[in-house]
Amino acid sequence: VDLARKKAGSLHEVLVRPEHLDLTEECKETTKLKAESLAQAPQLEQALQQFNQSVSNELNIGVGTSFCLCTDGQLHIRQLLHPEASKKNILLPECFYSFFDLRKEFKKCCPDSSDVDKLDVAAMTEYLNLEKSSPAWRFGASQVEDMGNIILTLISEVYNCRFADPERVNYKFESGTCSKMELVDDNTIIRARGLPWQSSDQDIARFFKGLNIAKGGAALCLNAQGRRNGEALVRFVSEEHRDLALQRHKHHMGNRYIEVYKATGEDFLKIAGGTSNEAAQFLSKENQVIVRMRGLPFNATTEEVVTFFGQHCPVTGGKEGILFVTYPDNRPTG
């Protein structure tokens, strides 16, 4: 939809071939899709390339031209595209890291309408007394046509809706520290169980790809011996993202399914809360990839650690890029 000229563009449809072509009767009835059509469709990476090419051609993207995606809710971008692309090691174009949620924009313009979680394209179309799309299009494409008509109505002089503040998807997880004195909202925390013992905070962030984890919001739980026990507490930026995370209960990380439950701010602070300024300073450095070393001699020095990695694997910041973990009485843990 061209917001300046208040005009809808052409409608396109690109099918994506799934890993399994078996369709339920309900799916066939709702979407009007056939297994034969999907068998000939491109896989996700090729479909995304087709999408990019189509958008570039139609918009004639150049200096001063920009566009932003608009979706019916959060699920398409956050719960489908980003996790699936991450799983298949597909690098998503930048345009998939920001989008407008039409349900939220609609609620801003029509505050007396249904709650956001009860809105969908059909409900918005009915509220605005718009005609439904042509039955010639299949399920997804017909919804997009309806969405275009909804947007055109919202930006008209009657509603004067401004699409100005898009949703954001974090590009990467940021490490950080959390003070024991910090107030942590209970409604932003989950507990993940069943993680492979070698999982890192980056692996956890990858599992929840598409959802925004707070800075330093992935805390791995340790057993009495200081080893990871397959659990983690994760803090999200909002209750909405926490609720989406709960929907990934029993999704897979490799061959293991991960259990996801609600947890509390107190649970998170027990694991993530700290008071070490030294650790906070260490984690504040830019462009870092952190590895944990175990089994060091108790009298090991920073120079020896730098020498251990050698010239072919230089430590970022040299001696400043090393932090020795100690017990509360400052004895080295190794």
UniProtKB/TrEMBL annotation:
Domain RRM: 188-265
InterPro entries: ESRP, Nucleotide-bd_a/b_plait_sf, RBD_domain_sf, RNaseH-like_sf, RNaseH_sf, RRM_dom
Matches recorded under PROSITE patterns: RRM
Keywords: mRNA processing, mRNA splicing, Repeat, RNA-binding
Signal peptide start-end: none
Keyword Transport: no
Single annotated GO MF: RNA binding
An individual GO BP term: RNA splicing
Family label: Belongs to the ESRP family.
Entry-linked PANTHER family: HETEROGENEOUS NUCLEAR RIBONUCLEOPROTEIN-RELATED
The protein's name in its UniProt record: Epithelial splicing regulatory protein 1
Organism field: Chelydra serpentina (Snapping turtle)
Gene coding for it: ESRP1
